Amino acid sequence: MQILFASSHSHDPDVWINPLRKALPYLEFVQWDENGDSINAELAIVWNPPTQIFEREKNLRAVFNLGAGVDAILQRPGLTDKVAIYRLEDAGMAVQMAEYATWALLRASRNFDAYQQQQQQKNWQRLPDIQRDAWPVGVLGLGVMGSRVAQTLAGFDYPVAGWSRSAKQLDGVETWAGDEQFSGFLSRTRVLINTLPLTSETHSILCRKTFEQLLPGACIINMGRGEHLVEQDLLAMLDEGHIQQATLDVFAQEPLPADHPFWAHPGVTVTPHMSAASLRDVTIRQTAEKVRAFIAGEPVSGLVERNRGY
Ligand code: NAP
User: Fold this and answer.
1) For the CA of 87, the nearest atom of ligand 1
2) Is the confidence at residue 218, as pLDDT, over 90?
C-alpha cells in the first residue's frame, strides 16, 4: 500500500520519511511532487499540506497530521467527510508550552524585564515583592496544551483558571466552560494565555471586547494561532494602557513582515512560532503507531471532530 508524504517543513523530508519507512516497512512512501499526478493514495502523512492535496488525491481515507493544530488541513479545498483526520497528541509540545507561558508570565510578575533594564543602568535596586493574588492567570483551552499550562502555573501558586467548551475538572485550577461563562472567566483574569485551536468559533476571539473585560494591566500570551488575535485591537489597547504587555508566538502572516508594528512596539515580544515544536522522534513513533492501528482496523486516538473543527 502506498502512503503519501506531504510536508511543507523546509528541512530535508528524508529525516522524516526514512524513520517512518523503518517503522512501517510494509508501506511504500511516496513524497508529494508539486508537478506530479495523483498516486491514488489512501493514506497520507502531512504537515501544512499543499493546497491541491484533496483535489488531486481523491481516494484518501485518512490523513495523519504531524502537528496538533489541523486548521490548515481543514481549509484545503476538496476535503470531504470520508477523509478521517488524525492529529498529534502532545508529542513533547505541552511541556514546552508550559515553559513558554511560565517565562512570559514571570517576566512581568517577578519584574525580570524591569531588572534587565536596571542592569543596563547599573542600578542595584529591589522592586516590590510579588503579590501572587495580583496575577490571576486565565488559560483559554484546557486540552492537551492548556491543561498542562494551567497546572504548571498553578504549581507556582498563581490563581489559575481555565476555559473550555465542555465542563472540565482539573486539580488546582478553577474551571469555566462555554460562551455563557466567558465573561465571568475574563473578569477575574489578568494574564490571558491562549492555547485554543483555530475554528470558526475561536477566530478573532482575542479582540477588544475580550480585552476590555480583563483586569487592568493585563498581559496577553498567544500560543494558539495568529488568526485568534485582532492585531489592531491589541495595539490600540497596549497604547491605551489597559494591556501591559503581549508575548506573541503566532501571527496571521508568518514570517512576520519586516514592517509590522509588533517588531518595534515596546509592549510586544515576538517569537517565531517556536513555543512548542513537535519532537521528531516521539512524533514519528506516535504517527507510525496511529497508521499501524488504522490499517489494522483498531481504534486510533486523536481523531478530529469535523463538526467542531478540532
Ligand atoms: P485540544 O487537546 O484539542 O484542546 C483544545 C481545547 O480548546 C479544549 O479544551 C477545547 O474544549 C477548547 N476549545 C475548542 N473550541 C472551543 C470553544 N469554541 N470555546 C471554548 N473552548 C474551546 O488541542 P491541543 O493539543 O491542546 O492544541 C491546541 C492548539 O494549540 C492547537 O490547535 C494549535 O493551534 C495550538 N498549538 C500551537 C503550537 C505552537 O507552537 N504555537 C504548538 C502546538 C499547538 P473541550 O475540552 O471542551 O473540547
Assistant:
1) 25
2) yes
